[in-house]
Design brief:
This protein is 39% helix and 14% strand. By secondary structure, it is of the alpha/beta class. It has 14 helices and eleven strands. Helix 5 links the parallel strand 4 and strand 5.
């Protein structure tokens, strides 16, 4: 779709005006201390991009650049490291044997690689299930972490089902970043792990003289675990200014947007998208209440929107893959096209607003599908 055509297009959109008044319990403080204790931990950059501030008519725009996190090209290592740490500590406390455990998961790429990295580092085994459409380079990166990989001829939800079945074997634990009834504790630890990212943003903005925090945070969404962490962080304080929170999904897999629209969690049929890490058909059960009550708005974007955003970020010095660039694509979709003025009002954006875009992966983390041209 051309830029001119997009000016007349209304993007898939949902807004909930009362979200900023909702509050929840904050994430545990010990998560950040755990990450800070890791030898390869360092806060990822928060990069200011004045040209985007001028484009969107706000005072400042920052991009949280997750292109290198704990040695991996995406934010997922935060959740995987904390969840694996908690899982192994609990097994030791319960008297589990000294032999290795197999950590099982399903992934579109980055989460599985992070679990495999942590397993190898800690002397454990890993078995990773990947759905159809995951690029061979992403699969090879998981194999390089010494993990067993099983490719599933179906979508992400089918890979999750197969991983859960495999985790029923002895000395095997499912470390999945989505939750369902009866499987919620480990996904909850993964969400807690992501909270370090938000704590870093607070510190980095304060160093820039922005002590009141951002006015808007845009976050890419798959099953909603990172968005749950973002909502928990910014709605977990009883006082202070609560920012607007915008979730962004592919039009090919808008499970959170559709769930918000219907007022209940639903599964959607997904199709191919270059935003492979966001190609999820069902919201996480533990994320859903936070997303329902704490998100101000949700928008869905096309692959072309994401590709343009990734190109623009690269030109500004930020390495971002299709999923990471979705946050910029989503904000751009919200603030242009038919109804843009109403959407700007819903996000409470004005000339004095500070915007933070979460770029959740580097350009190398999520190669284009073998059936897609390189961009």
């Amino acid at each position: 779709m051309s830029d001119n055509a997009s000016c007349f297009r209304t993007p898939p959109w949902f807004a909930r005006p009362e979200a900023r008044a909702w509050r929840c319990a904050p994430a545990p403080a010990e998560v950040r201390a755990f990450h800070s204790s890791l030898t390869d931990y360092a806060p990822t950059p928060l990069t200011e991009l004045p040209s985007l501030a001028a484009e969107f008519g706000v005072v400042r725009v920052f991009v949280k650049d997750e292109s290198c996190r704990l040695g991996l090209p995406a934010f997922k290592a935060l959740g995987a490291s904390w969840a694996v740490h908690r899982t192994l500590a609990e097994r030791a406390a319960n008297g589990a044997g000294p032999g290795p455990v197999t950590l099982v998961t399903a992934t579109d790429g980055n989460h599985g690689r992070a679990v495999a990295r942590m397993a190898h580092r800690l002397g454990q085994d890993a078995h990773v299930f990947v759905p159809r459409g995951v690029h061979p380079h992403a699969v090879a990166a998981i194999v390089a972490e010494q993990a067993k990989v099983t490719e599933v001829p179906g979508p992400y939800d089918e890979a999750v089902r197969r991983a859960a079945e495999a985790a029923a074997a002895p000395d095997t634990v499912l470390v999945q970043d989505t939750a369902w009834q009866g499987y919620e504790r480990i996904p909850g630890w993964i969400v807690e792990g992501y909270s370090s990212l938000c704590a870093e943003i607070d510190e980095q903005l304060a160093a820039e003289g922005i002590v009141e925090g951002p006015g808007l945070v845009a976050v890419p969404v798959g099953v909603g675990s990172l968005a749950q962490a973002v909502v928990t962080h910014y709605r977990g304080h009883p006082s202070g200014r609560a920012p607007a929170l915008l979730s962004v999904e592919p039009e090919a897999a808008p499970c959170v947007l559709e769930s918000l629209t219907r007022g209940e969690p639903v599964s959607v049929t997904t199709s191919e998208t270059t935003m492979a890490g966001l190609n999820c058909g069902t919201p996480s059960s533990i994320a859903w209440p936070h997303l329902r009550d704490g998100l101000d708005a949700a928008v869905a974007v096309t692959d072309a929107d994401s590709a343009r955003a990734a190109t623009d970020l690269a030109a500004l010095g930020v390495s971002s893959g299709p999923c990471g660039a979705a946050s910029l694509a989503g904000l751009r979709a919200a603030l242009t096209g038919a109804g843009a003025a109403e959407r700007r009002t819903a996000l409470d954006l004005g000339p004095a607003s500070v915007v933070v875009l979460l770029s959740t992966e580097g350009a190398a983390a999520n190669p284009t599908s073998p059936n897609e041209p390189s961009r």
